[in-house]
Write a structure and sequence with these properties.
Helix content: 25-40%
Number of domains: 1
CATH topology: Sortase, Chain: A
Order of helices and strands: HEEEHEEEEEE
Distance between the termini: 71 Å
Shape: elongated
Radius of gyration: 20 Å
Number of helices: 2
Strand content: 25-35%
Length: 182
């Protein structure tokens, strides 16, 4: 009986250490990501033509005031760029006519598009590129299959689509926005 209690106690201590390790790792990753993205935003504000995030050119900044969400936007290449910042996935250049699609991870440590879980229809999204700042207003918020590609459609107006994962990556949260406030 004493051996079983000892084994259970040791097992409990190991589990607590593992959980604590995950928590510390998540906090470290969040601090690290916030620091490098903050530096990239500062650099973009000073010189929007040469701002870099690691080896990636910063194209602009996304800002959602009501969520206190602000990240640099870089061109999507692969999972490595997806781990750094918000990625311009497809569509025309930022703040030009067409459907600009931005993607980012929904990190459990609260970074990148994690806050989109709380996005509401009365929020606004600001996109700053090298030339302008444009405000976008929500038209639709929905959850869909990761295989649904309908939100990537071409549009002849100023349109912005935000995509992130939800439900442990099994679904996608989509927010479609337009520069038209009506």
């Amino acid at each position: 009986m004493k051996k079983i209690k000892l084994l259970l106690s040791v097992s409990l201590v190991i589990i607590i250490w593992i959980v604590a390790g995950f928590i510390v790792h998540d906090k470290y990753q969040a601090c690290r990501l916030n620091k490098i993205t903050s530096d990239a935003i500062t650099e973009f504000e000073k010189d929007p033509y040469n701002a870099m995030l690691y080896n990636e050119l910063v194209l602009g900044i996304i800002y959602i005031p009501k969520l206190d969400l602000k990240y640099p936007i870089i061109k999507y290449k692969d999972d490595a760029t997806l781990n750094l910042a918000v990625n311009h996935y497809t569509g025309p250049n930022l703040n030009t006519k067409g459907n600009v699609v931005l993607i980012a991870h929904n990190n459990r440590n609260g970074t990148l598009f994690n806050k989109l879980n709380d996005f509401k229809m009365d929020y606004q999204v600001l996109i700053k590129d090298r030339y302008t700042i444009k405000t976008y207003y929500p038209k639709a918020i929905y959850i869909t299959s990761p295989y649904n590609q309908s939100m990537l459609k071409e549009i002849d107006d100023y349109h912005l689509t935000l995509i992130t994962c939800t439900n442990n990556g099994k679904k996608r949260r989509i927010i479609e926005l337009s520069s038209d406030s009506s």
